[in-house]
Amino acid sequence: MRKRRSVLSWALVAFLSVVTPFTLKAAEKMDAAKVKKMLKTMGISQVEVLGVQPAPVKGLYMVYVKLGDNRRAAFVLSKDGRYLITGKLIDIKEGGKDLTMEVGVNKGYFPLPSGRSLKDSKVRINTTGSPVFGPSRAPEVVVYFDPLCPFCLKELRDLKPMAEEGKIRLVLKYFIVHGDKARNLAYKALCLYQQGQKRAFWDFIFSRGATGGDFRGKCDEGKVELILTRDGEEAQKLQLRGTPASIIRGKVYTGYLGRVVLTKILSAGGS
């Protein structure tokens, strides 16, 4: 039984689509008490049901829970209680919007990261020569990333459209943690940006160097090396613990945030 409970608890946070049969009369309303009862029939008892929200898909509910180790998770439950689907509810027509996360953040089921204040830090964030996207009047989001970091690329895929929509001023800086190969990719990407090949810059970044522009053009190698060294030294002084790391309104956030969380942080004034 202990082994079964462990496996099922893990399943709640796995990003796989599975179905589990339940029984619930169609006329009954889905609520936290009924969800908890259903989970018990699966051998899952060490969870707190934080909330149950109707999904924007007919016949589905989004359920939010807190696990025994204080992790938060979400899953989708059918209206009749027969099927439980783990993973995310994604709106493809809305550019891959994560509806599960959006509702979870807006309802407070997923708390926002607090961030670490840089108020007392003596580090000056120098963005001279750094790739910048979006209008100067928009809220600035500085992201330290490594070209070989998968969560960095995921973050940038979320933030690039926000910059193009004028919602943020995205500044990219490098914190190389994956060695010479990552530094070489960063070097070439900066050369592309320096030459004004912004589209090629993004293609190169997202393909991890598989596609991109022409590097034979003029590139100030010394300037590129200075930018990479400067960014790395800043990251060390800021005591960044990994990538991606974002600086938003005087606070540093470590790890993947995503569009939903970032939007909420900005609307909350960075608190």
Low-pLDDT windows of residues: 1-27
Number of helices: 8
Global geometry:
elongated
State the total count of DSSP E strands: 12
- Reported by name, the CATH topology of the largest domain is Glutaredoxin
Which structural class fits the helix and strand makeup? Answer: alpha+beta
Helix content: 25-40%
Which whole number gives the mean pLDDT?
85
Strand order of the largest sheet: 7-12-11-9-10-8
How many structural domains are formed by the residues? 2
**CATH class designation of the largest domain:** Alpha Beta
Distance between the termini: 43 Å
Radius of gyration in whole Å, from Cα?
22 Å
Order of helices and strands: HHEEEEEEHEEEHEHHHEEH
**Known CATH architecture of the largest domain:** 3-Layer(aba) Sandwich
Largest sheet: 6 strands, mixed
Q: How big a fraction of the residues is strand?
A: 15-25%
The name of the CATH superfamily of the largest domain reads Glutaredoxin
Question: If you had to describe this structure to a student in words, what would you say it looks like?
Answer:
It is built from 8 helices and 12 strands. By secondary structure, it is α+β, with helices and mostly antiparallel strands. The protein has 2 domains: 105 residues, no CATH class; 152 residues, Glutaredoxin (3-Layer(aba) Sandwich), CATH 3.40.30. A hairpin with a 4-residue loop joins strand 2 and strand 3. Helix 5 packs across helix 7. The two termini are 43 Å apart. The N terminus is likely disordered.
